[in-house]
Write a structure and sequence with these properties.
The structure holds 2 protein chains of 2 kinds. Chain A is α+β, with helices and mostly antiparallel strands. Chain A is built from 25 helices and 5 strands. By secondary structure, chain B is an all-alpha fold. In chain B, 70% of the residues lie in helices and 0% in strands. In chain B, helix 6 runs antiparallel to helix 7 and helix 6 packs across helix 8. Classes of the chains: A alpha+beta, B mainly alpha.
């Protein structure tokens, strides 16, 4: 047996698993070979040294961590972890995403005039809703509901019902300064005024135009008597009503002309300011039975009112009752007809055209089968708008106020 | 035939025969575990694990955490990496215990997973260049009649650690499993899926290599 053979048996010698005859042969070799004996001693010392190595211990809490890691994580905790962690990465990224989306929304809103217009209309609707109950509770309305006056044009019952008002200061000028009214008037008018808007920038502003304030002071009786004339007034060719409607709002009242309250707005304009023809129709249907008189008679009475002296007109200034009809229908400063091949197409083209010139469509109603669109325009863009209107159809002006206000109210009858 | 032999060996090991084959109880007892705990799985543990009982898994972890961690730290030379590997081993066991057929002892299956995970990590490309081993991972017990001075012992521990770390992975694994963790040849053969003769051969070569590396410290 060679040294190499003997050294191959060291493991079995160490374990004591060497066969007896082989063990005997190894012992014979070891007894004569000092080198192999020395190697075997060192081999055993190595094994002994390895056996002295202390056992490694797992860190404290290792078992708890393993058990926690193996336990299934609830879904909500996994989602939270995925959304928020690592915090230094996820939070800034999510905040940046929110800011980007917000910027995008604002950008789209600003670049889309339709959205802005829709937002304006949305802000107008609550005002009208607030206005309605104020009419119902106004004391003047109750007086108007009193036994109906005879339809005598020369002596309108309004004068008797508003007799105490005549003693009120006759100031009620039709200028931009609101007429002195009782305490109820401002409160009723308050919802009409968008506080943040600058003069003449939107349709809501037009509602609070000076002309409406004298009209607001009209008695309900007078309004109701004139109600059937709404169509007549809206018919821009009506001479009497147009005379009243287009009178300059900022011109001092003349004794021989219609009073400022009348100029402010005939009640018939209220339906025209309604969002659509349906509301106008409803308003007419509701008021027609109350007047109890044929339209012709109503018209006659109405014209009698219009020709009444200014003192009678002033009568309506003092009562605090807010007239929904008058407050919502300022007179157009310019009226005219637009003849187009396709009235619907022309109507659709007017809105963007007005927006392009800084204006906005504030009302649309149907009179005598034709569509009347009311819009407001800044005075400085009015002429350009009229010039551009030629691209839509043939424009024939019927009336134009001498001194146009900063915000021009334009009534276009599309034919 | 070979499968039958292996099955008989596992049965023998499960009944405690492996302890005698390894050379006695003392090697196992030094780990603070009884022979019963090392050679046999706790009663009904496998069934409870298969049933998904959380408490059973916790018992398994607490029973084998030091052994699994010990193998990993000797193989990888890094406590942090060893903890990571040991945790991965137990998570794998938790996921796949339902598929454990029970052909071998649960402990053997656990060592097999541990060995495989360690060798995979050692063979990973990023690990070859990234990890730096710790020097103070190995400590010798002071159970000698004349223990060496502290400084000398520290040097011996460092030399022994470096000698073991310098072994090829497969030989080192056998040394760790046999001489440091006290597994029997059959357990090692079953865990590594190699022949017992191969185990002995690798162990002998590893010991001879260590003997040469530790020549300065040997008589």
């Amino acid at each position: 047996m060679t040294c190499a053979d003997v050294r191959e048996t060291f493991l079995d010698l160490q374990d004591g698993t060497l066969a007896p005859d082989e063990h005997r042969a190894v012992d014979e070799h070891l007894s004569t070979c000092a080198a192999c004996r020395r190697e075997l001693d060192r081999y055993r010392a190595t094994v002994s040294l390895l056996g002295r190595v202390d056992r490694a211990r797992a860190p404290v809490g290792f078992a708890d961590r393993v058990v926690g890691a193996a336990r299934p994580v609830p879904w909500h905790r996994r989602v939270t972890r995925q959304l928020l962690f690592p915090l230094p990465v996820k939070l800034p990224a999510e905040a940046a995403a929110i800011v980007l989306v917000a910027i995008g929304v604002v950008y789209v809103f600003q670049k889309t005039p339709e959205l802005q217009h829709a937002a304006r209309i949305e802000t107008l609707r609550p005002e009208r809703e607030v206005l309605t109950p104020s009419i119902a509770t106004a004391p003047v309305t109750r007086s108007a509901d009193a036994p109906g006056p005879p339809p005598a044009p020369a002596a309108p019952p309004t004068s008797s019902s508003s007799a105490p008002v005549r003693s009120a200061p006759p100031a009620a000028p039709p200028s931009a300064v609101p007429p002195p009214t009782t305490g109820a008037a401002p409160s009723a008018e308050a919802p009409l005024r968008p506080p943040a808007e600058s003069p003449g920038t939107s349709a809501g502003k037009v509602d609070t135009a000076p002309a409406q304030k004298p009209a607001k002071s009209e008695t309900s009786a007078a309004r109701e008597r004139r109600e059937p004339e709404s169509a007549t007034h809206d018919d821009l060719s009506g001479a009497a009503s147009r005379q009243q409607a287009v009178a300059p709002a900022d011109v001092p009242p003349r004794p021989d002309t219609a009073p400022p309250a009348r100029r402010a707005e005939p009640p018939a304009a209220e339906p025209s300011r309604a969002p659509g023809p349906d509301l106008a129709k409803d308003a007419r249907e509701q008021r027609a039975p109350r007047s109890g008189a044929p339209p012709d008679e109503e018209l006659t009475r109405r014209r009698g009112d219009l020709s009444a002296p200014p003192s009678e007109a002033v009568q309506g200034v003092a009562p605090p009752a807010p007239s929904r009809l008058a407050a919502k229908a300022p007179a157009p400063d310019v009226t005219g007809r637009l003849s187009a091949r396709d009235p619907r197409e022309a109507e659709r083209a007017i809105r963007p055209l007005a927006s392009r010139h800084g204006g906005a469509v504030v009302a649309r109603h149907i009179e005598g089968g034709t569509v009347v669109i009311e819009l407001t325009l800044p005075r400085n863009t009015y002429r350009r708008f009229i010039a551009d209107l030629a691209s839509v159809g043939s424009w024939r002006p019927e009336h134009e106020r001498g001194d146009l206000p900063d915000q021009i109210r334009l009534a276009i009858r599309v034919e | 035939m070979q499968r039958l032999c292996n099955g008989a060996l596992f049965l023998w090991l499960a009944l405690g025969g492996g302890v005698e084959a390894y050379g006695g109880v003392s090697t196992h007892a030094r780990y603070g575990l009884t022979v019963r705990e090392t050679s046999r799985d706790p009663a009904g543990l496998v069934e409870r694990l298969r049933a998904g009982e959380p408490r059973a898994f916790e018992e398994l972890v607490r029973a084998y955490q030091h052994r699994v961690f010990g193998i990993a730290v000797r193989m990888l030379g890094s406590r942090a990496e060893a903890e990571e590997i040991a945790q991965e081993v137990f998570v794998r066991v938790h996921r796949s215990v339902a598929r454990f057929r029970g052909d071998a002892a649960l402990s053997t299956w656990l060592y097999a997973i541990t060995s495989r995970v360690c060798l995979d990590r050692l063979g990973a490309a990023e690990r070859k260049v990234a990890r730096e081993g710790d020097d103070a991972l190995l400590a010798l017990r002071d159970d000698q009649p004349d223990p060496p001075a502290t400084l000398e012992r520290k040097e011996l521990e460092r030399a022994l650690h470096q000698a073991i770390a310098g072994l090829p992975d497969e030989r080192r694994l056998v040394v760790v499993l046999r001489d440091l963790e006290g597994l029997s040849y059959d357990e090692i053969a079953a865990a590594l899926d190699i022949e017992v003769g191969t185990v002995k051969s690798r162990l002998h070569r590893a010991r001879m290599e260590l003997k040469d590396r530790l020549e300065k410290w040997l008589p």
